[in-house]
């Protein structure tokens, strides 16, 4: 924590400075002093992830869809249901009685038996499709998790921005009082007083804007866990980011291997390949087996008869049916392969884009924290000293102080941007890259 600026009280003062030294010593020029204590109710990123995993409706829908696909595996490999027929053969009308000697009661059972390994192939297709749906459910879970992380970092940025803007408004309020006092006693000018009022109104508007952003981010989080939009959301605590950035080749390799969307695409390619094989076997006739039992009554008693039947389907319309199924399967296989190629290309592009965003955010944040902010703080110190002896006007001090505040707001934006980049990189890699349970105690930017 950086020290607050201390207004010097030793030495001689001009009449102008002695008029306001008591007031200036009490204003919030050292506005960015000790940080406030952590809120007892703190929202960690891990809390958001747990809530989304348990309550997100879209992730739940994807899981149910995967369960439905798994339920199709067994039926796909099972024989078709047999057909049972009960017949009353050769009955006289309108008496409705069996004609002698032809009338009989007949029961027939028919079973179609697919040949050429079609049933095992259908089972393989269903298994690949069910695996693809499970992977898609995992991808949906990562997508919703990432959306929640985006809203979480927006919440964090808005909350910390409100804190900075509130401190700045307190500073401007004190400056406005001093400028008005100086103007009333003839030591200042009206422009300083009016400028201070304008800055006060601008900071009030900034606070309102940041509070609206906070409400919007909270509503997004509530929607992701199926809660009313106005439900209370605790204060967000940013996690600690890894010190070193991952190697892009390692991330790409892991993404190609572990990203659920790519694994789902691979399963779809496998399913389409088996489907193509099965379509070519549709030209093989299927067998139809049947047994028949009949009985009739005559003068000698009851006569019982049995029959055995065997038949086969005939692909008479193969050009309009089976061959078209083959064309369809080939097109579906080509589509699945093209879709998988696109997924891999898109993943490579997104990894490169996110890694560039991550490196940019990290580099600029280090620049702000290590160079820009210290220099801006030094400029404020210099302006304070120059103002004490009358070499600069009061608004120069104010402008320098508010420049520091603006840089701290920009640093907050970079921290939120880095967090979003980490979250998207986790989705692409299919694994956690940061400790979402940790809390970074640095708030409101470096030096806050």
Provide a quick synopsis of the model.
The protein has 10 helices and 8 strands.
Describe what this molecule looks like in 3D.
- The protein is an alpha+beta fold and 448 residues long.
- The chain has a single domain, classed as Outer membrane efflux proteins (OEP) (Up-down Bundle).
- It has 10 helices and 8 strands.
- The strands form 3 sheets. It has a 4-stranded antiparallel beta sheet with strand order 2-5-7-8, with no helix packed on it.
- Helix 9 (322-388) runs antiparallel to helix 10.
- It is elongated, with a radius of gyration of 38 Å.
Task: Sum up the structure in keywords.
Outer membrane efflux proteins (OEP), alpha+beta, single chain, disordered N terminus, 8 strands, two-stranded parallel ribbon, four-stranded antiparallel β-sheet, 448 residues, 10 helices
Count of individual helical segments: 10
- CATH domain class: Mainly Alpha
User: In the CATH hierarchy, what is the architecture at level 2?
Assistant: Up-down Bundle
What is the fourth-level CATH superfamily?
Answer: Outer membrane efflux proteins (OEP)
Helicity range? 55-70%
The counted number of beta strands is 8
Radius of gyration: 38 Å
Distance between the termini: 7 Å
Strand content: 5-15%
Secondary-structure map:
Elements: H1 15-26, E1 42-43, H2 45-55, H3 57-71, H4 73-76, E2 83-89, E3 91-92, E4 97-98, E5 104-113, H5 118-184, H6 190-224, E6 235-236, H7 248-258, H8 260-280, E7 287-298, E8 301-312, H9 322-388, H10 394-429
Parallel strand pairs: 1-6
Antiparallel strand pairs: 2-5, 3-4, 5-7, 7-8
Helix pairs in contact: 1-5, 2-5, 3-5, 5-6, 5-8, 5-10, 7-9, 8-9, 9-10
